[in-house]
Amino acid sequence: RLSLVGSEMCIRDSPHTDSESEKQQLLLNLIIKCNENGRKLDARNYIRRLEMKAAMHLHAKNPAQLAYELSLSHSQFLEQSYSTSNLHLGKIEKQFNYVPETHPYINFLYKLKSDLYYYQGNYSALMSSLEKQAKARTKTLNDDCPEYHRYKMEVALAEISFGKDLLKAKRIYAFSYFQFLEKELAFSSAENIKYLAVLSDLYVRLSQFDSATIFQQKALEANLQLNGENSSIIWLTGYDSSILTKDKLYKNALELYK
Questions:
Q1: Stretch among 159-163, 184-188, 227-231, 254-258 having the lowest mean pLDDT
Q2: What is the pLDDT of residue 101?
Q3: What is the CB neighbour count within 10 angstroms for residue 176?
Q4: What tens digit of pLDDT does each residue of 40-73 get?
Q5: Is 117 helix (H, G, I), strand (E, B) or coil?
Q6: Which three-class secondary structure state does DSSP give residue 30?
Q7: Long-range contacts of range 146-149, CB-CB < 8 Å, 24 or more positions apart?
Q8: How far apart, in whole angstroms, are the C-alpha atoms of residue 65 and residue 51?
Q9: Are 114 and 124 in contact (CB under 8 A)?
Q10: Within 13 Å and on the Cβ side, how many CA atoms surround 141?
């Protein structure tokens, strides 16, 4: 991904940008980075630039309009205005009807939808969105590609989070994590810690406490390597009833290590 400074330079200096479409994509990337880094004023300024670009075209289905609606939806999502975020996604579906699977925004669009459905607690919509991602990715990725297995893990994490098909989640872990991603990821990476922590939670939900303890210890060890002696994984402190009845274990894990 482009650095924030590098992206800003590309926007200012037209020789670095081959087309108007690339400029719009860079603007969208800048808005995302500014929002994630707490630079809300800069993000709003870039959103206004996208809005002006969209207004220059009479046709509602122009690329700038798509980037503009996506930027607004993402900004509202980060501010936890989920209904407003969903409203802008609805405008995209209404105005564009179909966004090609090869479109440069498609993965971000799917990810934003999935995150929105997750935080709204909409299990059926979330799983439908993940299935659409599956169809999109299987057209371009084979089953030995790490990105394909990251998608599969998103399905597993959603099943665990909602306490639905836990055995399906276990099967996905057995294939996508243990046969592929575990070999690709650094043990102490934030992504691996997330998978280990949620796996421990899965075994708790399945009442397999010996396995839960093993992966709890692995998650703690990896977290120690990554963050040092004074760090802790607050949602993995034991298996007393006050811990087991919490519904936000997975959500806490995601927010700490996403």
A1: 254-258
A2: 66
A3: 23
A4: 898 888 888 888 887 776 555 677 888 888 899 9
A5: helix
A6: helix
A7: 146/180, 146/181, 146/184, 149/175, 149/176, 149/177, 149/180, 149/181
A8: 7
A9: no
A10: 18
Residue 249, token pair as written in the block: 């274990």
Is the distance from CB of 25 to CB of 71 less than 8 angstroms? Answer: no
Q: How confident is the model at residue 178 (pLDDT cuts 50, 70, 90)?
A: very high
75's CB contacts (< 8 A; 6+ apart) are 31, 35, 43, 47
pLDDT of residue 100: 67
**Residue tagged 């934003």 (tokens):** 112
pLDDT at 169 over 90: yes
Are 173 and 199 in contact by the 8 Å Cβ rule? The answer is yes
CA distances in angstroms from 31 to 7, 24, 43, 81, listed in the order given: 10, 11, 5, 17
CB burial class (10 A; 0-12, 13-18, 19+) of residue 22? middle
Check whether 8 has a pLDDT greater than 70.
no
Structure tokens at 81: 């205005």
> pTM for the full model?
0.67
Q: Can you tell me whether residue 215 is helix, strand or coil?
A: helix
Distance CA 11, CA 5 (A): 10
